[in-house]
Amino acid sequence: MTALEALTVGRVGVDLYPEQSGVPLAGVSTFAKSLGGTATNVAVAAARLGRSTSVLTKVGPDGFGDYVRQALREFGVSPEHVGTSAGLQTPVVFCALDPPADPPLLFYRSPVAPDLTLAEADVPWDVVETVPLLWVTGTGVSVEPARGTQREMLRRRGRRAHTVLDLDFRPMFWPGTETAHEEIGWMLDHVTVAVGNRTEAEVAVGTADPDEAASRMLARGVELAVIKKGAEGVLVATAEGRWTVPPQRVDVVCGLGAGDGFGGALIHGLLSGWDPVRIATYANAAGALVASRLACADAMPTADEIEELL
Question: What is the model's pTM?
Answer without folding.
Answer: 0.94
